[in-house]
Design a protein that fits this description.
Structural class: alpha+beta
Number of strands: 14
Number of helices: 10
Radius of gyration: 23 Å
Low-confidence stretches: 1-5, 151-167, 361-381
CATH topology of the largest domain: Rossmann fold
Order of helices and strands: EHHEEEEEEHHHEEHEHHEHHEEE
């Protein structure tokens, strides 16, 4: 059953692009799904459904706060129309886009292309989705215009703060009580935090980062990769003594591929430390857990690992001295309490996160076994 408002919001975005090309040429372009998909500024992979040439599975590469990158894979169904095309997108986390391109003649030999997009998404992700979509679609429409006008366009991807895909989301959470709302906060942390002896997000986020660094035990004057991009650039031959992945690996496509690449980029005797999420062995396959994970889809299904599977996969990849520490009591409860203290909207999201955490958790002696601090050590062999 779909989640109700205010958890799910609907927004509509419209744009108009003048094109100095005949109307028929613009419509013909829009009727070519492969050309449309390949022109996407975020697209890194696309596959056509063998049974339906108008249905594509598309993978986009996304920048996260300008610090690391992740990917998302979704289905897109194209429906050519007399005056343009319609596209229905079903993406993770229950996100759905209804896109409508239409073309009309303007002056002789020129046309006007309009795009209307209706977005349905969890309110928590709506700022990110809108900013990312508006920027990428603007670039895509500019590519269409440039190609039809016989011009070459080079579009620069920016990673400055002004293009932060999360918008004001993380800034709002970093703002301490009493801070003026018209002044940016002093920090821009974005992780679930380590909430022992604090109720303040920046302090909790810094504590989780420091705890992960302490677990990694970096070598003095060693080479450290602090924020991980996935996938690694295969042309890079750099070797790191320490790799840190703070509250991000469960988003990657896939975590296993990331860990394999990380191993190949570690120096002999190096370590990788992660603040990550795994699930309790006894509750992962329960009917309730499966229903909640299927409804919320907060991580790729390939990344849904139990604690036992996590250690086993690490060892199969080639890591040794794999240790795992459960820090749930100092992470999830404090994070949820903090969210619920920030107003009605954040209270609702905190409650939603609480439900998701319980989907892979077994409550034992008051402990929710889901959030983990992982430390990985590479053999000296």
């Amino acid at each position: 059953m779909p989640l109700p408002w205010p958890l799910v919001l609907t927004r509509t975005v419209s744009s108009t692009t003048p094109i100095n090309a005949p109307t028929d040429a613009v419509i013909q372009y829009l009727h070519d799904p492969d050309r449309m998909v390949s022109g996407g500024s975020l697209v890194i992979d696309r596959k056509v459904d063998p049974s339906n040439p108008l249905k594509y599975t598309i993978t986009d590469k996304l920048d996260v706060l300008g610090l690391w990158s992740s990917t998302t894979t979704y289905d897109a169904l194209f429906e050519p129309k007399d005056e343009g095309t319609d596209v229905t997108v079903n993406a993770p986390m229950g996100t759905r886009l209804q896109q409508r391109w239409r073309v009309r003649g303007k002056d002789e030999g020129s046309a006007e292309m309009t795009e209307d997009v209706e977005v349905q998404a969890l309110f928590f992700f709506m700022p990110y989705i809108l900013r990312t979509m508006i920027k990428s679609h603007r670039e895509g429409n500019e590519r269409i215009r440039a190609q039809l006008e016989g011009k070459h366009v080079a579009l620069k991807r920016l990673s400055s703060r002004g293009d932060d895909p999360y918008g004001l989301f993380h800034l709002a959470l970093n703002r301490r009580m009493g801070d003026p709302i018209n002044v940016d906060p002093k920090t821009e942390w974005l992780n679930m935090g380590y909430w022992k002896n604090t109720s303040d997000l920046p302090t909790a986020c810094e504590a989780l980062a420091l705890r992960m660094v302490q677990a990694a035990r970096p070598r003095p004057n060693g080479r450290v990769l602090e924020h991980v991009k996935h996938p690694f650039n295969p042309a890079d031959d750099l070797r790191f003594d320490t790799i840190l992945a703070l509250d991000c690996a469960y988003h990657f496509q896939t975590r296993k591929a990331f860990l394999q690449q990380a191993l190949s980029n570690l120096a002999v005797g190096g370590r990788i430390a992660l603040a990550d999420i795994a699930f309790d062995d006894l509750t992962l396959d329960t009917h309730r857990s499966k229903l909640i994970r299927a409804a919320l889809r907060m991580m790729p299904s390939d990344n849904v690992w139990t604690k036992t599977t996590y250690v086993k996969n690490m060892e199969q990849i080639g890591y040794v001295d794999v240790t795992l520490e459960d820090i749930t009591d100092e992470v999830f409860p404090g994070f949820v309490r903090f969210l619920k203290s920030r107003g009605r909207g954040w209270w609702a999201f905190g409650a939603l996160m609480e439900v998701y955490f319980s989907a892979g958790a077994k409550v034992r002696d008051g402990r929710i076994l889901a959030a983990l601090l992982e430390r990985r050590q590479l053999s000296n062999d």
